[in-house]
Amino acid sequence: MNTLKSIILTTLQQDDRLYNEDKKQLNQTLLLDLLEKIDKPIITLLLQNQTLKDKFFIKINDSYVFKANDFQFFMEEHKIDNSYTSYKNRLGLTDGTRFLKDTDDVVLDFPFKDCVLEGGQSTEEGADDYFEWQEDKLKDKIDENGNKIKDGIKNVKEVDVPAHYEKKRDKRDEIFFNQVLAYDEKDRLFDEKALVNFIRHNKDGQQKVNNIKRDENGTIKENLIIKGNNLLALHSLKKQFTGKIKLIYIDPPYNTGNDGFKYNDNFNHSTWLTFMKNRLEVARDLLKDDGVIFVQIDDDGMAYLKVLMDEVFGENFVNCIIPEMSNLSGNKIEHAIQGRKFPKIKEYILLYAKNKNNCTLTIPKKTKNEWDAEYNIIFPELTLKEFEKIENLIADSNHEELNDFLKNHKIESLIDYLRKNNIENIDEWKIQNSFRILASKPNTALRKKALELNFDTQIASLKNSRGDVKIIRTDFNKDTETARIELVFAKNNLEVFYGDIWHDITTTGGVAQEGGVVLKNGKKPEQLLEIILKSSTKPNDIVLDYHLGSGTTAAVAHKMGRQYIGIEQLYYGENDSVVRLQNVINGDKSGVSKAVSWQGGGDFIYCELAKWNETAKEEILKKESLDELMKFFKEMSQKYFLNYNLKIKEFNEKIITEENFKNLTLNEQKQMFITMLDNNQMYTNKTEIADAKYAISAENQKLTDEFYSYDK
After folding, report:
1. How many helices and strands (H and E) does the chain possess?
2. For 235, which of 122, 190, 378, 381 could close a Cys bridge (C-beta 3.0–4.6 Å)?
3. For residue 150, is pLDDT > 90?
4. Last residue of some domain: 583, 608, 633?
C-alpha cells in the first residue's frame, strides 16, 4: 500500500541532493530548507506526482501554488524513521529548526553597544564607580549633621552623588529592535553605499577632504572612521579591502540577558548569533591570508561564540585568551561575602586565523612584577660606558678580568646603594640601570654539554642547539642534574612572555578617561590593545574594528603607526571616537602614549553611510506617544520607502483604530512602524547617488566615486 509518506520518499529519491549514496536515507532538514527557498527542481518533482499535486498544491486560474506550510507540517508530524542528516555527528548552533551555518538570514538592526555597557550595571555599580574615582575627595565630605565623614564612601552614598551617576543606579529602560531578514528579502541590501560628510582630521583640526590617498598597489592608505550600520559598511569595504586586513579586533555587544537586549524571547541566542555570523563571514573575507581576528566576549556568550566561530573559520582556532579585566573590589567582594558566586574578574578573547598555516604571532613580553630576591645581584658604581665594557668582556670571553671584577666590586646591599645615590623609584632603576650576573634556572642541555668539556676559567660561553650563546658557570655542582649553571643578565631576566592568561591588565587608574573621553563601564584599556597589536601586526598593517565604541582600537593603532578602519553606528557626543582620535593627534598622554613614545601627529578621514530610511527609523524611536507616531506616518509614507506589501489605506482606516493596536506598549507600536520600512533602503546605494531625491552634494558624489572606483 502506497502511503502518502512512501509516495513522498519515492518521489524525492529522484533528487540526488536529498539522499545518501544508496538512496535509503533522506536529508529532511535540507529538504525543508530548500523548500523554504522555493527550490524549483523539488517543486517540479512534487508537481509531477498527481497524488502530491492534489494534496499539497492549490490551483488558481491556470497556476498551481505550493502549500508549503501544509507540506512542512506533514513532514514534521510524520518523521521519517530512517532519515539521515548531513548534520549527523556535528555540533552546531540552531534557531530551533535549522543550523545557523546553513541559513541566509541577516540581522539588520541590533542593540546599541553603549547601552549594554551601562545597562548591565547593578543597582550600586554606577555610583560605586564614581566613589572609587573620587575617593580622596569624598573622604573630606561633610555629613548631614555637619561632621566630617571619616569612614569614606559608605556614608557619602546618601549625601552627595551627582545626578548622572544616580541615574545609573536604575537599569536602562531602553528597548532595542532587531529585524531578521530572510534570503529573498535581502535584495540590494549589500550593495555599496553612498558616503557623505567627509572630513579630514589632523593637527590643524577639521579639514576638507580633497582626495583619498592610495599606495602603489591601489589600496586606500587612509585611516578611516565610518559611521553607519556595520554590516552594510563591511559589505561596502569588500571591493577595496578584501584580503588586505592584517588584524580585526572586536568587542561586540555581549547579550548577557541582564541588559536591555531582551526585546523578545527569541533574541537571546539565535538572533544574536545570526547577527554575529553575518558580520564574521564578511570579516573573514577581508582578512589577509596571514591575518587574525580577536573577539572579546563575556561568560554568557563565550560557549556559543566559540561554536559559531568554529563554523565560520573552520579549523583555524589559535587561542582562547583570558584577560584579567577587573579586580576584587566593590560589589564583587559583597557578592563573595554573601556566598552568591565566585567574583568574576575575567573575560575571554577568542583568537582565530584566516589560515592557521600562514599565521605567525610575535609573542610580546612583559616585565616581572617582582625582583628575584634569591639571586646574587651586583651593583657596582659604574658609568654606562663601564657597564657596556663588562658586557663586551663576557662577549669576548675575556673572563679573567671579569672574575677580578666580580671579586672586588661588590657592595653591602642594594638598599644601601640606592640610599647613597638618592634613588627613589627602586623598581624602575633596576629595570633601567642594573647589571647582574647570577646562577639561574636548571638547564640540563647546557649541563650535559659542559660535562664533556674542560674549562680553565670560572665563566665560559657555550652555544645551545639553536645557536644562541649562553654564559655559564664552570664551577657548577656536577653531582646533581638540577645544577644552577646558566648566568643571566638583568635586562634579559626581567621580562617573561605572555601566555594565554593575561594578568595585570590595568582597568582602573584613569582607564575610564583614557584619550580624553569617558566611558565608565566596558571601556577596554589601551594596554590590552597594545598587547594585541604587538603580537599580530607591524607598522603600516591595516587594523579593523567594526564595533568601535569610544575608539580604543583606533587610538592605539594610531599611536603605534598602524593603518586603521573603525565602524560605529552611534554618536557618543563628547565621548565619541572622533573626539578621542583628535586628542590623539594633538598629543594625548594617556594610555600607552608613554610606552610607545607618542608625540602626536597623523590624520584620519571621517565619513558616514548616507542615511535614508535609517533617518525615518531614528525619528520613530524619538517619538513619545502614538499620536506623535501617527503624525509622522504621513511624512513617512510620502517621503520614505515602505515595505512593498504594506497597505497604507487599510492601516490608516482600520488597524490604527483597533483596540488591540492601541493596547500595545509604545515600544511595540514603534516596532510595528519600523517594520513598515523597506530594509533595502535604510541607506542610499552608490548606484543612486545622483538621484536628486537624496540631495547628496556634488562633492560627496565625487569622493564616493573616488573611494570605490579605483581599479588596478
Report:
1. 30, 20
2. 190
3. no
4. 608
